[in-house]
Give the backbone structure.
Amino acid sequence: MLNTLTAAPLRLSERVVADPPVVLAPMAGITNTAFRRLCRESMAAALEPGQAGGLFVSEMITTRALVERNPKTLRMVRFEADESPRSIQLYGVDPAIVGAAVRMIVDENLADHVDLNFGCPVPKITRRGGGSALPWRIGLFEDIVRAAVREARGAVPVTVKMRIGIDHDHVTYREAGLRAQDAGVAHVALHGRTAADFYGGTANWAPIADLAELLDIPVLGNGDVWEADDALRMVRETGCAGVVVGRGCLGRPWLFADLAAGFAGRPERVRPGLRAVAAVMRRHAELLAEWLGDEERGVVDFRKHVAWYLKGFAVGSELRRTLATASSLAELDDGLARLDLDQPFPAEVVGQPRGRTSGARAVSLPEGWLGSRHSRAVPFGAELDSSGG
């Protein structure tokens, strides 16, 4: 079955090719330079000769903050010299500002690919009319996408990431997909949940199959890709052109080696013992310290990853707390040295959800949002002045 897949390389432009067709989803506070490097290196070690590797997308970048040259945002759009292709995800609700941000990316050669965020379900985004709330205002959605494609001027491909809709009574993916295609985007990625689903329950892949049949451009699937075999099943069941992987790789950058093997039809899967996991943890913290230019800030930023890396391993609560409160590499080393490093990878966590699993909730929206589907007006106060989600 593995070798019967028809998932060809994803070619967005001459410079932007994903082979295998795998994309690291933008995740706020996660997909910075350090984590992208770990994921890229993991996949690179498992590629067949001549394969380019996947796309590894930045954290969400706010268009206003980029145009205004916010120092934090400018740091977030810096890529390593060996990162190629360079992918940036933009969040914006004003077509003029989104267009200006894409123009800046092209003029200053900041990236090779721009993805537009219409999928974020976080209340601070949707209550302003952004993220997964925005495609309901289909005219505004179209204006934003057309502005981005126009200002890209063919120099960089533009793609769109979105959800099924606001909730099951306000479904948007079909019309939004068609409008995005007509505007000239290179692909559309669809998360198989509504905004109201948040990150709970089981992703619904049927709309992914529906959109893949509806559109002429590639459709990528997202949602509940916990293992490489989930990605292969998604492609087989939906006919999507590739997969977008988010929470499945939290604390597991080596998942991208499994994805490379799986799409190549090979059976091997990476299941590192705790000794190898501890080495990755240490390197992750060190890379964060280098990226942020400060050891303490890097180790503090790493704290959020500790529970994901240790998921399923027998590690006492006190030691977990010690590792999750470290403020220096020396403190982290002391904690890692106290682990029972001979533990094998815990088989019981294979295929299990990681990261956020919070379920259905009412979606925070601007007042009157659902009653004005065809308004092209930019919601007041929707633009954010900082990046990262």
